């Protein structure tokens, strides 16, 4: 038996094949899709993987707008060069990476095609999860959200942390597989596998598109 088969059997025996329902009031959350991941001068950059994910993110955003499904964006911002509001994560663990998100740094601008419209909500955070220390739960409750469709960067970090918290806040998380990016395929795929097994549904872009169309608000 291969290691993957052994892994699938082990997880299947433990977690089974239960599935979260896809509700009638989905909301798309675009997580930290900023320019730095796509620019070779930025430490966040990794060739190919983030750009391929960006294309899927853009398609997903455009589809939700066409279907009149709310789109919410999250990003990180540190208000001072010292990163005081980033705590020890900024100060000690990842200072050379997190300073990408210093206020005024062009790398923290949204990537091409991932820019919010003037009528769309942007949630600003300082840590991995889009829920931690933000008003995102209240925003989603106000929108009547029952299913949170997630995409963005990076799969093992801010996407995974946000998806975990979405489950813990009662918003069924669905992850668009192609619309997530990480620095290495192994890390990306392992994170998607783990999220699927434990606290979300990871689906292809085509599958999510079909579910969004089936649950989009009816046009008047």
Automatic annotation (TrEMBL):
Question: What Pfam families does the record tag this protein with?
Answer: Isochorismatase
The lineage's top-level taxon is Eukaryota
**Keywords assigned by UniProt, alphabetized:** Hydrolase
Which residues are in the Isochorismatase-like domain? 27-206
The family database entries (InterPro entries) matched by this protein are listed as: Isochorismatase-like_dom, Isochorismatase-like_hydrls, Isochorismatase-like_sf
Instruction: Spell out the family assignment given in the record's similarity comment.
Output: Belongs to the isochorismatase family.
Q: What is this protein called?
A: Isochorismatase-like domain-containing protein
Ranked from the top, the taxonomy reads: Eukaryota, Fungi, Dikarya, Ascomycota, Pezizomycotina
